[in-house]
């Protein structure tokens, strides 16, 4: 069975094309807290998470770390280097022990030269992803702090939440500062909004967990 068949990035490929992708794929493991690559390094590989969680980070002018995104099972990291031989634009560090599928940029390039249809389909998929990302940026810029925090909780709940009876358990190791960096806000603002949601019995927060009781009412804030 293809190791990449269930990966959305390759969803447009045929069975035969998936077999060709499998031939250039390898697997590796990373410990929790290990860097997969650093911002500014030569981008010669891209990765798909088989099992685990990874955060993509970037250093900003004041020296703080900004979390650009969080990835988990079946997500692709640094896909831009599949077609661009530039450096990694951000760093990737594991949040848990992680298994990943690795692709060498030069091997994919050689494969595309032999089978151009693969390149066309991957570019089509990347274009769709870019359009969705641009829309998310526009939406974020127009929302107030409560809407941005609510949107982040919805995103995390849908991607990482575990449904238990009438609640969603969000068991992910992110501090309030890290949550704030994901939406371009301050820790104080995120703390205030989470406190507001908690006072309305929409959520309950603890050191490493957020329990969501009323996701529909949180959605109303967006």
From TrEMBL:
Annotated SMART domains: cNMP (SM00100), HTH_CRP (SM00419)
Pfam families to which the protein is assigned, alphabetical: cNMP_binding, HTH_Crp_2
Every Cyclic nucleotide-binding domain range: 9-129
Annotated keywords: DNA-binding, Transcription, Transcription regulation
GO cellular component: cytosol
InterPro entries: cNMP-bd_dom, cNMP-bd_dom_sf, Env_Response_Regulators, HTH_CRP, RmlC-like_jellyroll, WH-like_DNA-bd_sf, WH_DNA-bd_sf
Gene Ontology MF terms in the entry: DNA binding; DNA-binding transcription factor activity
Segments forming domain HTH crp-type: 143-216
PANTHER family linked to this entry: CRP FAMILY TRANSCRIPTIONAL REGULATORY PROTEIN (PTHR24567), HTH-TYPE TRANSCRIPTIONAL REGULATOR ARCR (PTHR24567:SF74)
Protein's recorded name: CRP/FNR family transcriptional regulator
Organism: Halanaerobium saccharolyticum
